[in-house]
Amino acid sequence: MATLQLRPLANLPLGRIIQGDCLTVMKRFPEESIDLIYIDPPFFSKRDYYTVWNGRRVQAYTDIWEGGMPGYLVWLNARLLEMKRLLKKTGIIHVHLDHHASHYVKVEMDKIFGHDNFRNEIVWCYGGGGAPRKAFARKHDIILFYAKTENYVFNPQFAPYKPHSPFHSKGEPYRDEGKLMEDYWLIEGLGSTSKEKLGYPTQKPEALLERIILASSNPNDVVADFFCGSGTTPAVAQRLGRRWIACDMSRVACAIARRRLAVIKFKRHKGIFRSLFIIVLLHSILNLLRPLRYVLKKT
Fold first, then answer.
1. What are φ and ψ of residue 95, in 5° steps?
2. How many CB atoms lie within 10 A of CB 67?
3. Helix (H, G, I), strand (E, B) or coil at 233
4. pLDDT tens for residues 184-216?
5. DSSP helix/strand/coil, 36
6. Is the model's pTM score more than 0.90?
7. What's the rounded Cα separation, in Å, for the pair 47 and 65?
8. Does residue 295 sit in helix, strand or coil?
């Protein structure tokens, strides 16, 4: 794990993926230094998750808890308290969960961040997968949205009107940009043929993180993800002009995320590399033609 020192924000390791327990990593950061925290922690699903790395099937992370739900909540609460310390007074936190523990964590977050600072229970709806025979198919996750104080950053998001939509005739004025976004989001998950898919379990789509980051931060703000997995949060934050810090306990997750960010940086500079290649190629051709030019001059 990278060694960090307690130092001013300007010298923090922004734009870096750090391997290690986020509790240890966060304790070395100064308080009130982060604008937005998004985390996608273990869900208390009571299973292990695997991925393929360098041709081998390896464990990505475990979500099995010897202490059951009480042990899980103690573990998560310690990290949520540290995240509260790191958030600026205008800061926001989004905690991504599912049916296993979201209602338990909501109660704990009311204690940590204050019930009055709860803003939304966002429902992310998605399709795909199978359907159980004795229950309704579970096709949504929960994102708990809390602000640290009443003075926080929020940029309204808009969705296109559906054909023949009655929204603008029921009191809401018609807007060119669309209707105001509600707290349930229809965003497709990553299918087997998705170009984003990296093979990492529980990978989230970039469209989901894009909406969160645009709504809850401004350009050049610091965005942190302390369970970054395959690196969706830093990838989107970088594309949207935010500074970022990412961390994960899994060595495999950090390796996948670093490779993902390296590919993004390469694509961004691909035009520069192409221009340099053409310049070098032309220079080489001119050097090859010089002897021929001398021979032609002699004749």
1. -115, 120
2. 10
3. helix
4. 999 999 888 889 999 899 999 999 999 999 999
5. strand
6. no
7. 9
8. helix
